[in-house]
Structure formats: C-alpha cells, structure tokens
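Throughout our pipeline, every protein is held as a single compact record rather than as scattered files. Such a record has a labelled line for the sequence and another for the backbone structure tokens. The remainder of this section carries one protein's record, kept here as part of the documentation:
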Amino acid sequence: MSLSLVSSKPPSLELEDVKRHLRVEHNEDDEYITSLIVAAFGIAESYTGTKLIESVFKYVLPRFCKQIPLPVYPVISVDSIIYVDTDGADQT
C-alpha cells in the first residue's frame, strides 16, 4: 500500500489573525509564524487522525480488493479508481 499527497490547500487560519492574537505588529517573522501554523495543523491532524485541511491523495494497493480501506478520514469524494486488468491494461 502506498499513500502519497498530491496537493493540499493552505490552512484556513489567516496569518493576520494569528499575528493579532500574538500581538505581533511587524512583518519580519511572517514566514516563521506561517511555518508554525502549518506545523500546528500537522500535529493536530496526527494527534486526532483526522484531516483538517482539504487534500488530494493517491492511494496505490498491491492488488484489486472488493472493499478498499481508506487510510484518510474524512473523505469528501473519490475521483476515480483505476486498476490493471488481466491483460495489463488500465481500467477505470
């Protein structure tokens, strides 16, 4: 099984809101604060086992399954399922 992140939207927490909460008025630390926001979302996702940021994943299984266990929660949609048939051709 292979799960890989294809794309992800930025966290919904705005830099200006965080700076206001921290009472930071200068811009010198914007990049650092932004990295802390991303890290905080990652830690929260790991701790809860729930995706908080809308993301797109590619999930590859070693064989065809009647039931596919989804490793990411919650799932908004499944765009496609592609498998290799007995002739070696991709089927959607």
Notes: The CA atoms of residues 9 and 54 lie 6 Å apart. Helices lie at 15-22, 30-48. The beta strands are 2-8, 55-60, 83-84, 90-91. The longest strand covers residues 2-8.
